[in-house]
Amino acid sequence: MSVTAADTSAESTAVxxxxxxxxxxxxxxxxxxxxxxxxxxxxxxxGPNGAGKxxxxxxLAGLSRPSGxxxxxxxxxxxxxxxxxxxxxxxxxxxxxLYADLSADENLRFFAALYGLPDPDARIDAxxxxxxLRARRGDPxxxxxxxxxxxxxxxxxxxxxxxxxxxxxxxxxxDDRAVGILVDLLAELHDGSRTLILTTHRLDVGLRVADRVxxxxxxxxxxxxxxxxxxxxAFAGLYASLTEGHA
Length: 247
Prior knowledge:
The protein is of the alpha/beta class.
């Protein structure tokens, strides 16, 4: 299913997938995903465990190869050889991928070096300011709350000014206050300068921040709609029917 019928030229489309498949031996994670996502859009992707959401995001990030179908991200084919493309994508997951014994500043400085970024001081300062962690830049990450750690992971993902930001269940383990802070940050990041994709089990969060919402089940996108046209109560029932029989 196509997420939109908009112009799908390389200039206007951040993600284009046709019949995308991924199998791990006999286990099929993606079974024919079709997706057109215009640049600057915020898509929330919801679905049960095992629907293939993480697999799809890893593929978009160039961390996993399709078993079949076609995929273009930011006009290029992702894969191990597409270093230039990976430099335009940021990934934030429920595992923050930070070094607990290093400070916030040291973590970002390490990743800035990996990216080979010019003027790392300015980039690090701007990223920490964006997530409101400048005051804690010298503190070890092990002293951070779960919510602060997720915000630092977002700062890491923003360092290289990616055109595509992928969030894989970033609210996992957060209390309501931390979720609220994260939602405000996601809304701020949705400024038209980048494309965002969020996977979450929190329907309420997904509906608050996105332009579009899609349901993934059985390895496919089985429903899509504009977020502003969705009634949360009605959507909850629709979601249950679309994912019935899946954990």
